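Progress report, Aim 2. The chain analyzed during this reporting quarter is listed below.
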Amino acid sequence: MKALKWIGILLAIYVGIVAAFESLLGYFQPGGDYTMVIATENAQGEMNPRVLAKIESDGALYAAANHWPRAWYRQALENPNVQITIGQETRDYTAVKVSGAEHDRVDREHALGLVFRILTGFPPRYFVRLDPK
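Predicted structure tokens for the chain:
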């Protein structure tokens, strides 16, 4: 019974660390040459910007849902008309869900480190390809 109590305490601490990391990452929104801003439309018709890592593979631009908070990803699947801002340039794109061999290739080329996966709570990883309009 004592072991179960300790496992419960450790699990609660781990969930707290993941929640804190995700919250801080969302609050501070890192930026730079390796990021882009995706704007997706929510159910109320409002555009929601979100900073994401810019992923390029085989001449195409991708965005990855690497975290548990992923409203932008669901919105992009519901309405694939998105806007991407890289640097000072904003363009319209179509978000296309990636699966199969293409998903595996992009995931392999842009693998996440173990520490990052631990800090984010091992969420499943999904990609969209961003096709220019």
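Residues 56 and 133 are 17 Å apart (CA to CA). The longest strand covers residues 89-97. These observations will guide the mutagenesis work planned for the next reporting period.
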